[in-house]
Design goal:
TIM Barrel, globular, binds flavin mononucleotide, 351 residues, eight-stranded parallel barrel, single chain, two-stranded antiparallel ribbon
Length: 351
């Protein structure tokens, strides 16, 4: 029987165990999106995770969603990530950067221009902009040229991440951001080859993954999905057909992993396991009240190869040993999730 503490080959690297740090936006970069020394310290503190997946990182200026999120589209960004990667590697860890293009989950006050999306459909709700919380605005429907430049921005960002010394990239196709907006028919009402049928809705994500894998090697590329997720006003029909088409389109690319977030009402991890021949990282979701027990049984039953932890990783820099030894946990303070400098960031104590 496989255990959470057996080693695991993920792409070109070997994780000493299967406890993964989930991507978490923390808004501690400079206003220009440059990763700081404090961020290097935060990630290095978590080097004992089998793999660190970074917070969402915008691959282009127009893909930024929130203030003070990091980018990976300038030389200054790349130099900042080099310092982060060196700190993580120096402490014995591994890090993939999560490439997150926010699409319509943004605001002119954040990016200085109208956000883009598959279609001009305004999401319900409000967004924190740095100058207060504002209602979402109608995004501009992406032209054929916009599709090419968005896809190219993922490719360029992946090259920069690898040049910075990161172990790979995770394409964020979950939680209502741009790639997820293509998959869901409430946000994607296109009438071209990228909208309509489940195969068409999966097409932009497949082409982007293919292009990134061709540029940096499939073993350096992961992807995150959240089938049936409703965060950021997602709603879709034909879930099985759409995610089935997506997985069929990318399974042969030899990717490092597929990362699946479980959402209420759909067994996304089980669905994906049956359709994915590579490494599968599960996240049991916000609603799970027994994260550690679920992780142990998910890996032991073969339901997933590894499990990612969000809030427990945020609050416990040494989470893997705490799980292994059954030790007490620090509790995450939601007041400092998205601001606070070192407070609620690098000051959670290790045992
Ligand atoms: C503060 C915070 C920020 C997050 N930011 C991201 C993000 O940038 N990208 C992403 O894919 N998920 C993000 N998530 C979701 C987590 O990766 C994870 O799926 C979620 O927290 C559920 O896991 P948990 O119950 O272990 O916390 C975030 C979660 C939290 C708490």
């Amino acid at each position: 029987m496989t255990s959470l503490f057996d080693s695991l080959r993920i792409g070109a690297m070997t994780a000493p165990h299967r406890v993964v740090m989930a991507p978490m936006t923390r808004n501690r970069a400079t206003s220009a999106g440059v990763p700081t020394e404090l961020m290097a310290e935060y990630y290095a503190q978590r080097a004992s995770f089998g793999l660190i997946i970074s917070e969402g990182v915008q691959p282009a200026a127009i893909g930024q969603g929130y203030p003070h999120t990091p980018g990976v589209h300038s030389d200054e960004h790349t130099a900042g990530w080099k310092r982060v990667a060196e700190a993580v590697h120096g402490a014995g860890g591994h890090i993939f950067l999560q490439l997150m293009h926010a699409g319509r989950i943004s605001h002119v006050d954040v990016i200085g221009t109208q956000p883009i999306a598959p279609s001009a459909v305004t999401p319900a709700g409000e967004i924190f902009t740095g100058t207060g919380t504002k209602p979402f605005e109608e995004p501009r429907a992406m032209s054929a040229d916009d599709l090419v430049s968005a896809r190219d921005s993922f490719v360029d960002a992946a090259k920069r991440a690898v040049a910075a010394g990161c172990d790979g990239v995770e394409l964020h196709a979950a939680n209502g951001y741009l790639l997820n907006q293509f998959l869901a028919d409430n946000s994607n009402q296109r009438t071209d080859a990228y909208g309509g049928s489940p195969e068409n809705r999966a097409r932009f994500v497949i082409e982007t993954v293919q292009a990134v894998a061709a540029a940096v090697g499939g073993e350096k590329v992961g992807i995150r999905i959240s089938p049936n997720g409703t965060f950021n006003d997602m709603a879709m029909t034909h879930i099985e057909e759409t995610y089935g088409a997506l997985l069929a389109g990318i399974d042969s690319l030899g990717l490092a992993y597929l990362h699946v977030g479980e959402e209420p009402g759909f067994a996304g991890i089980k669905f994906s396991r049956a359709r994915w021949s590579g490494v599968l990282i599960g996240n049991t979701g916000y609603a799970d009240s027994d994260k550690i027990g679920s992780a142990v049984s998910l890996v032991e039953s073969g339901g997933a190869d590894a499990v990612s932890f969000g809030r427990l990783a945020l609050a416990n820099p040494d989470l893997p040993r705490r799980i292994k030894n059954g030790e007490a946990m620090n509790k995450a303070d939601s007041k400092t999730f998205y601001s606070g400098g070192a407070l609620g960031y690098t000051d959670y104590p290790a045992l």
